[in-house]
Design brief:
single chain, about 150 residues, alpha+beta, minor pseudopilin epsh fold, 4-stranded antiparallel sheet, 1 helix
Length: about 150
């Protein structure tokens, strides 16, 4: 009996099984990577607006404010009394260790100091990924770090 060239059904099924295992591992890693990326983007966006408010308060001698409500995915930032709304990417939400439901951080002109220093803002992204945006000290330095 002469054997034909080609693959048997069992060989094809084994290759498909190994390929399915590799794809499953790759997809779960990609999903986790994407969740981390969205959380990092949200934290960096918030930190960028805080830094921008701090710098503009110093440059323009106008007080700037960032305000948000716990559990929401949007916040307001701008000169006091003229705030503009922003939404975090990836349905991320904001939280804080402070007791009030609406958190306000004000950079006071002309030196951009803040009485709201030592405030931690938790950015919770998809999949429960979390990062902290900290406003540190009287000068309101902004630091992003893992919890």
């Amino acid at each position: 009996m002469k054997r034909r060239a080609g693959l048997t059904l069992i060989e094809i099924l084994v290759v498909l099984g190994v390929l399915a295992i590799f794809l499953t591992l790759g997809i779960s890693s990609y999903i986790s990577y994407r969740q981390n990326l969205l959380t990092r983007d949200a934290a960096n966006q918030l930190a960028g607006h805080l830094l921008d408010a701090r710098n503009k308060a110093r440059r323009t001698s106008t007080s700037y404010e960032l305000r948000f409500t716990k559990g929401e995915n949007s916040y307001l930032v701008g000169p006091v009394g003229d705030l503009k709304a922003y939404t975090l990417p990836g349905n991320s939400t904001l939280n804080s260790t402070r007791t009030e439901d609406t958190i306000s951080i004000v950079y006071t002109a002309p030196y951009s100091t803040t009485p709201d220093g030592n405030t931690s803002i938790e950015v919770k992204g998809p999949g429960g990924k979390r990062l902290l945006v900290n406003v540190v000290g009287y000068m309101g330095k902004v630091v992003v770090r893992a919890p």
